[in-house]
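lol ok so funny story. i was supposed to be doing the assay writeup but got distracted and ended up predicting the structure for this chain instead. priorities right. anyway since i did it might as well share w the group, maybe its usefull for someone
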Amino acid sequence: MPRPPQRAPFEGALVIDKPQGKTSHDVVEAVRRVVGFRQIGHLGTLDPLATGVLVLLLGRATRLARFYVGRRKRYCAVYRFGFATDSYDADGAPQTPDAPPAQLDATLLARLASERVGRFEQTPPPFSAKKVAGRPAYEFARKKQPVELKPVEVEIFEYKLLNIQGNTARFDIECSSGTYIRSLAHEMGQAVGCGAHLSEIRRNAVGEFSLEQAIRLEELAAAAQTGRLASCLISLDNLLPSFPRAKILPVLEKKVRHGSRFSLPLAQIEPGGQELPPGATSQLDGGEPQPPRLRVFDHQGRLVAIAEAVVPRTYQPIVVFDPLP
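and the output, tada:
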């Protein structure tokens, strides 16, 4: 008789400060070696050039990934002016002669950035993971084969020039999921007239997760060696803080764990611990409104389920967690 799958010894969210030069998959594999199990997923990739916030979900927390789709992201990005590259970043081959402007105009760069605030359609760069005929676009780009990518609607919430140093300019950017910062750098170079590419990028936040919560891989390994691994995690019970919460009695808990609809008085529902964090969205992909969602806890304060409203104060469990042994 097959054994039931073994529960991961750790669960929750882990915010890694991704080092430059590693892929997101490299980081996931490194964390798997440290923690000793494979049930780990990430909430959106970072290019090898990028550093900063890479959020991993461990154990049963991987089941919450669907609720993090579409979260806003915040970056600090450095554009180098003077030439464009085929990948729109520093890892690509130069595509234009190196001709930096005599002096970058702060007023012009600030204006170009502010004009991009809002919704618009952005064409992904040729060197991207967007699928074309079932294959990533970068496979065609590496072979110098033409590829046609469809524009995608994105939104910039904040785009500010921070400083200029020589032929580089640093920007603070808050944007929707799916926005390509290197495309912003490329188009600004075109607008200035001398070409530009993304030379550095650091992700400072993804939704409710920030760089202040992040840990480096070497710090994580040290914590594992000294038995402090659990202290590095944001617990399962503390995830999705913007969702309202309710604590239920055992008689109702049994019904919830069986996936049955249940009703709660309004007085029993607590508002979320904070307003929608940067990155939370009230819409599903395609622009459909989301039904209100609720975190359901048992009388000991452990997360039982995520439920979705079907009518006011009546909920349907959509993710149910088995009780701990």
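Residues 275-288 have pLDDT under 50 and may be disordered. The longest helix spans residues 24-35.
back to the writeup now i swear
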